[in-house]
Amino acid sequence: MSFGRGEHVHLMEILEHRSVPAAAVSIGLTRRCPLHCRHCSTESLMDSEEYPAEMFTRFAETFTADSHPDFVLLSGGEALLRPDLVRAIAERARAVGTRTHLLSGLFFARRPRIPAAVRKAIDAVDHFSASLDVFHEEEVSRTAVFRVLHELLDAGKDVSLQLVGLGPDDPYLADITGAVRREFDDRVPMLVVPLASVGRAREWFVRHPGLPRPVGAEPCALAGWPVVGFNGQVTACGNQDVMDGKVPLPAHLYLGHIARDDWATIRRRTLESPMVRALRTFGPRHLADRMGAGCGDAGYCETCYTLSRSPDIRPGVHELVRRPSTALVEQLVTRSLADAGALSFARHFAVEGYADLVALGHRTGQEGLACTG
Fold first, then answer.
1. Going from the N-terminus, what domains does the chain have, and what CATH number goes with each?
2. Is 228 within 8 Å of 51 (Cβ atoms)?
3. Alpha-helix residue ranges (DSSP H) falling in the chain
4. Which segments of 109-248 are extended strands (E)?
5. Is the distance from CB of 89 to CB of 100 less than 8 angstroms?
6. Any residues with CB less than 8 A from the CB of 147 and at least 6 apart, and which?
7. Which residues fall within 8 angstroms of residue 239, CB to CB, at 6 or more apart?
């Protein structure tokens, strides 16, 4: 079967847009998943919540040639449990100039052949990414994952891997990244991120908090793309605790709901919300300190969660973003992040020593890559 309908989209091209506010939207199509990974951030099960497909397709239908995200990132749970929905969104997106990225846990790789409906969904998207780590390998074998990736690569599909590890000294990361590089001759890029103590991992994994972060400006790189949760709620934050309600949703992170709001409205709120703009420019700890609320030893995200609780912060932030000097700083921060490029973003979030693997297979990313492990 041909996979030629989608455009060629390398992982680097998506990461290069990470600094552009509202350049993309992430959509969780379902919380359901047939796998039982011990570290699952969404704590997905096959009987987890799932909302009507029409809610998501109606939102995608609000994309127009004049107003659309550059990318739509589809995930779950396991998005490919809803292959017809994936296909419908991808085809609508392509019709107006939006490209699509799909993340899957490859539950179907346990079968000898990719199911027809799943193949059509993968065919429809522009970039296909698979999760692979020591926890996924308890559910789906490395051999099965490699087999599927070979099939997609041979058919001309752009693919990547999303890996999770315990840190730079994790022997599994050295093993798996080396195996992928050898198996695919450096054609498959990898985004390697550290395990977080969220979801099921919260029960058994605790990362040492380290030293408190400085209170100086530290822009939030993740406040730029709106995130659509499984229930259609849209936030300016993809933190799973926020989306699951384990942390009460801070008012300043709420952008709307796709059952009521179209893309143009969500985009406008993402770009114009004073609180979200200030987070992208200064970061939460700097805002708390600057507005006199203080942040003590609270972490970066933890400080953000509390910003809406102080009655003085919102008017202070609104006054701050109205200043011409703030608009200039905002432009400089956005430009600086864009100039730094995809590798800079990866180095900020990836496990130390593994960030450059996002460039494997990229036309400009082959030079100077040292083999990790």
1. 11-207+343-359 (3.20.20.70), 270-340 (no CATH)
2. no
3. 11-16, 53-60, 83-96, 116-124, 142-154, 171-184, 240-244, 263-272, 274-282, 284-290, 300-306, 313-322, 324-349
4. 127-131, 159-165, 190-194, 227-228, 233-235
5. yes
6. 109
7. 198, 247, 301
Please write the tens of the pLDDT for every residue from 97-155. 999 999 999 999 999 999 999 999 999 999 999 999 999 999 999 999 999 999 999 99
- Phi, psi of 100, rounded to the nearest 5 degrees: -125, 145
Q: Residue 236: CB partners within 8 Å, gap ≥ 6?
A: 223, 226, 227, 252, 253, 254, 255, 270, 273, 276, 279
Say if strands 233-235 and 190-194 run parallel, antiparallel, or are unpaired. unpaired
Token pair in block for residue 112: 């000898």
User: CA 114 to CA 324: how far, in whole Å?
Assistant: 55
Residue whose entry in the numeric block shows the structure tokens 């047939």:
34
What is the pairing mode between strands 159-165 and 254-257?
unpaired
Please, are residues 12 and 359 in contact by the beta-carbon 8 Å criterion? yes
Contact 360, 181 (CB under 8 A): yes
Q: Counting every residue, how long is the chain?
A: 373
- Report how far residue 30's alpha carbon sits from residue 52's, in angstroms, rounded to the nearest whole number: 9
CA distance 177 to 183: 10
pLDDT digits (tens, 9 = 90+) for 22-38: 999 999 999 999 999 99
Is the CB of residue 316 less than 8 Å from the CB of residue 289?
no
314's CB contacts (< 8 A; 6+ apart) are 252, 274, 275, 308
What lies within 8 Å, CB to CB, of 268 at 6+ separation is none
Distance CA 83, CA 85 (A): 5
- All residues at 6 or more sequence positions from 64 whose CB lies less than 8 Å from its CB, including other chains: 96, 263, 264
The two structure tokens encoding residue 104: 């899957």
Q: Sign of the CA dihedral 138, 144, 146, 148?
A: negative
pTM of the model: 0.89
Structure tokens at 238: 């993809």
Q: Is the dihedral of CA 3, 23, 70, 65 positive or negative?
A: positive
